[in-house]
Every structure is written in structure tokens, then in C-alpha cells.
Amino acid sequence: MGPAALSLLPMSDSPIAGLDRTQLLVLYHSLVVTRAAEERLEVLHKQGHVTGEVYSSLGQEAGAVGAAFALDRRTDGTGDFLAPTVRAAGALFLFGGELVDFFRQYMARATGPTGGKEASVHWVDFQKGIVGPVSPLGTMLEVMAGITLSFKVRGEPRVGIVFYGDAASSTGAWHEGLNFSAVQRCPLILMVEANQWMFSTATTMNTRVQSFTDKAAGYGIGSESVDGTDIVAVYEAVSRAAKRARAGEGTQMVELSYYRRLDYVQHDPQESVDPDELAMWEGRDPISLFERRVLEEGWAEEPELEEIRGRAEEDCRLAAEQAVSEPVPYGPEAVKGIYTDTVTPHPWTRTDEPDKRATSELKT
Ligand SMILES: Cc1ncc(C[n+]2csc(CCOP(=O)(O)OP(=O)(O)O)c2C)c(N)n1
Ligand SMILES: [Mg+2]
User: Which of 9, 33, 66, 330 gives a 20 to 30 Å CA spacing to 350?
Assistant: First the structure.
């Protein structure tokens, strides 16, 4: 259920960033749904239902949600396009990615968008404008440069948005893709998830720039850095970037400045993190900050926010329950849609018959 369904009286007329009360509550709903979905994923992982990695966007939710909310999201294939990362689930949901599909993907269900072939957000739905990422870091900039070049060539007023981790910004693909996109003036918005970490390596070990906007300057594109914990600031920055890109000003960059509060994935012990630094960022939780603002400015009262939170958690519980009850693919089904002309087994794949003599000797 979206918050628009709540029958409550408007409490104030003065908008935040030109957003009305209903829109503010949709933003809130998107934030809490993202957190609830990722928390549910953690439970499913502990229960053994998710056998791959579990990624979390804890502390980064406002970056994904605020950015996606600034775009033209449609389900008929005519809207803006999104390439998310694993830490941009909030954007995926706003672009129409279903909760149940999110859980199906992570549990590799046959019913999921990729039929159980992979286990996170790598799925595609062109009607909704969702382009799931390929894994080599940096390459989605090139893919999205191509997609948005097609918007430009056809004279369509559409833009693309592509999310990246700060590590991805040091790959060759990122630089080549960015240069191409900048030169061709592709209507593409780069969202750099500057969360200060890549695995257990600090971003300062990966780049000399203080801000990724310095890299944008090197390619002659517009950019701004924004507090990634402030959903309203993100929404405004991406709205400006989208306006510029739609007006023919070409590729834009928005740097989301925030912190990866959890480990890279659930098994990373986070040994390199300074506890005081972490505590400081916990104090800047994007959901708490937005809640405080909405309440202080009289846009909502605590009981309605509580109702939205309760709904989000229940929706996630039900969607997860449904996905759990569904099957994984039957073996031969799992390879449907995979094309290759040469089958190259991994070097560790056994190609010879096992030595029966050795086995029987072992038994005696
Ligand atoms: C070209 C390439 N090199 C290495 C990897 C392995 N890898 C996957 S995620 C990751 C770190 C990602 O860090 P960042 O981009 O900052 O994202 P974050 O986890 O902080 O969200 C690496 C090195 C990869 N996928 N692609
Ligand atoms: Mg990072």
C-alpha cells in the first residue's frame, strides 16, 4: 500500500522542495520499505534461504530513493532508464521492481525475473526502464551511454541514471565510458555512491581526489556533490541534473557523500572501521533525519509514520514468504537462455574418469 491511501488531513501548506504531503509520504514509504526489505533479506540469509551474498544499503537509502524519485518513471517503456547497483534497491523499487521479485532473485527462484540464474539485482525490465548491472565494475556507464545516446538520436526527452560505487570510478571502463558519454552529450546522470569504502579498503587508498566532482571536471561535464543522507537535498540535486540533461546539456554527475555503515557483504568482519566514525554516521541516519524533519515541519504525525513502517514490514514479510514457497529451477531449465558456441570448463572441473584403482585401494 502506498501512503497516499492514508486518510489523514493535510497539516501544512508549505512544501519541502516543492513536494506535497503525499509525495513526502511516498518518499518516506520508499525509504522504510528499502530498509525493511534488506532486513528481511538478512533474516532469510540466516535461515539458509539465501545462499549467495546479501548486500545492504544501510545509511545509503536516501541516495537511491531521492534520485529515483526525481525521474520520470513509467511502466510502458517510454520513461527514464535506471541502472542500479546492489546498494540502490530503493531506486529499483521506485522504478517498479516488485518486492516479491527482489526476494525471488536473492533466493534464485525459478519464478524470479532471471529464472534463478543469479542472486541479486541483475535483472532487466525495459518496460519499466530497469537495466540490471553486469558485474565488472564501471562497465554500466558504457551500457547506459549507449542507451541514452539512442534517446538523444531519436530526439526523445528521456534521461538515464547509472549508479556506481566509489571503487568503480577507478576502472578503465568508467573513464572510457564517461569520456564517450561526455563527448556525445549523452543525457546520462552518474550517481557516485561515495560511501568511503570498497571491501575493506578505504577510498583514500583508491583515488587522490577529495571529491569525485574533480573527476567530472576533467571530462568537462556538470557535477555537484550532495549530502547523501539528506533525501530532500538528493532529490533536488538530481532534479537539477535531469533538467540539464533533458535540455541537451549532456552528461551530469552527482556525488552522494555518505558512509557504508555495514560490511561489504554479511561475511565481511568490518575490522578496518573506526568505531567512532561509524557512530558519527549512525547519528546521521537518513530515515531518522527525514522523519524528524517531516514531524517538526508538521507534515505528518508519529502514528501515521508508524502505520507506514508497519505496512512496509508486513509487505516485505508477505513477499518473502511467497518467494520462499516457490521452487528453484529444475536443472535443465536453469540453462535456458544461455548462449555459447564453445563450452570451456573451468580448470578445476574434472574431465577424466576418476581413477577407479586408486579409489578401490583407498577403500581397502
Ligand atoms: C572490474 C572489477 N574488478 C573487481 C571486481 C570485484 N569487486 C566487486 S565489488 C568490489 C568493490 C566495490 O566497491 P565500491 O565500488 O566502492 O562499492 P560498495 O561495495 O562500496 O558499494 C570489487 C572490487 C569487479 N566486480 N569488477
Ligand atoms: Mg564504496
Answer: 330
